[in-house]
């Protein structure tokens, strides 16, 4: 008879878990899992979104004491498990996946903010190929490898987009209503001021929304309706604008300018600057200084 073991002791996470507000993100991998171990997943009123980073040949999954799945999953596939169902798992092959824990409460809060009041359940068949979930979760991987350089505003927006997508596609919800109206003048002014004052460290969407007396999801939609950009895109644009001023009016080197404007390193600065302006920082600086 197999002896259950604690999931945290047997899973061998490749990187430490990362917490983003009420959510947690964990990369789990094991090259040689013990096929005789059955992992007891702690019960909670939450959903576990599991995205396979490599092909997973075989495993067994129990819910409420009954075997509910036996088989494997291909790379880029998604499964969603409700952790209140007494979930147990047996890994029968090497695995590498990303797991995002989503408590039920914030999902239902997001629905309430959209004018829907109901208890949500998610129904995602095991091994579903969902490119939206895969690419959103891929953008979160740097948060696990470089937690000290994480932009909280970006992570918040990715998590909000993920929650919105899985609720709309896999939840027992009606069609989403029309996007929110734009921000009022004072709300737009306050949000822009806050972003400008936190170019180097950034602010979370929740903090910006609170300052504008709005819910997080309503604020994000209203901000984009008012400005044509998400809060994160606006932040990057302001960082680039500040970098232009420093390049024109100081002798600082590009590496220092990038750091002063809140970019993690010169490579990050160059990528964002070229995407927004169409030119590398060094080329832009040469051409604009030559025109003085």
Structural class: alpha+beta
Quote the average pLDDT: 83
How many beta-strand elements?
A: 11
How far apart the termini lie comes to: 80 Å
What is the number of helices?
A: 12
Shape: globular
Query: Which spans have pLDDT < 50 for at least 5 consecutive residues?
Result: 1-13, 174-178
Number of domains: 3
Radius of gyration: 22 Å
CATH topology of the largest domain: Jelly Rolls
Share in β-strands: 15-25%
The ordered H/E elements are EHEEEEEEEEEHEHHHHHHHHHH
Strand order of the largest sheet: 2-3-10-5-8-11
- Helical residues, percent: 40-55%
Structural overview:
There is one protein chain. With 292 residues, this protein is of the alpha+beta class. It has three domains: 167 residues, Jelly Rolls, CATH 2.60.120; 41 residues, Orthogonal Bundle (Arc Repressor Mutant, subunit A), CATH 1.10.10.60; 57 residues, Arc Repressor Mutant, subunit A. It contains twelve helices and eleven strands. A six-stranded antiparallel beta sheet has the order 2-3-10-5-8-11. A five-stranded mixed beta sheet has the order 1-4-9-6-7. Strand 6 and strand 7 form a beta hairpin. 31% of the residues are buried. The N terminus is likely disordered.
Fold blueprint:
Elements: E1 4-6, H1 7-10, E2 18-20, E3 23-30, E4 38-40, E5 46-52, E6 56-63, E7 66-73, E8 77-82, E9 87-91, E10 95-103, H2 104-113, E11 128-129, H3 131-138, H4 141-145, H5 152-170, H6 185-197, H7 205-211, H8 216-227, H9 231-249, H10 254-260, H11 266-277, H12 281-290
Parallel strand pairs: 1-4
Antiparallel strand pairs: 2-3, 3-10, 4-9, 5-8, 5-10, 6-7, 6-9, 8-11
């Amino acid at each position: 008879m197999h002896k259950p073991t604690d999931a945290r002791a047997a899973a061998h996470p490749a990187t430490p878990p990362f917490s983003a507000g009420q959510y947690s993100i964990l990369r789990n991998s094991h090259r040689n899992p013990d096929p005789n171990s059955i992992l007891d997943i702690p019960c909670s009123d939450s959903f576990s979104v599991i995205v396979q980073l490599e092909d997973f040949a075989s495993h067994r999954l129990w819910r409420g004491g009954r075997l509910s799945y036996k088989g494997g999953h291909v790379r880029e596939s998604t499964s969603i498990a409700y952790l209140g169902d007494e979930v147990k798992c047996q890994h029968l092959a090497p695995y590498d996946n990303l797991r995002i824990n989503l408590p039920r409460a914030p999902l239902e809060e997001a629905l309430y903010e959209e004018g829907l009041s109901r208890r949500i359940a998610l129904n995602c068949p095991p091994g579903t190929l969902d490119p939206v979930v895969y690419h959103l979760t891929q953008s979160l991987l740097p948060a696990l490898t470089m937690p000290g350089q994480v932009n909280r505003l970006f992570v918040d927006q990715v998590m909000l987009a993920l929650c919105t997508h899985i609720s709309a596609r896999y939840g027992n919800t009606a069609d989403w209503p029309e996007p929110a109206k734009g921000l009022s003048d004072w709300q737009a002014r306050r949000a822009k001021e806050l972003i400008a004052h936190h170019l180097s460290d950034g602010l979370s969407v929740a903090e910006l929304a609170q300052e504008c007396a709005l819910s997080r999801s309503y604020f994000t939609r209203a901000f984009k309706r008012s400005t044509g950009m998400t809060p994160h895109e606006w932040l990057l644009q302001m960082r680039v604008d500040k970098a232009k001023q420093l390049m024109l009016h100081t002798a600082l080197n590009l590496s220092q300018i990038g750091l002063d404007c809140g970019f993690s390193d010169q490579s990050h600065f160059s990528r964002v600057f070229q995407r927004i302006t169409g030119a590398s920082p060094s080329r832009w600086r040469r051409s604009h200084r030559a025109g003085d």
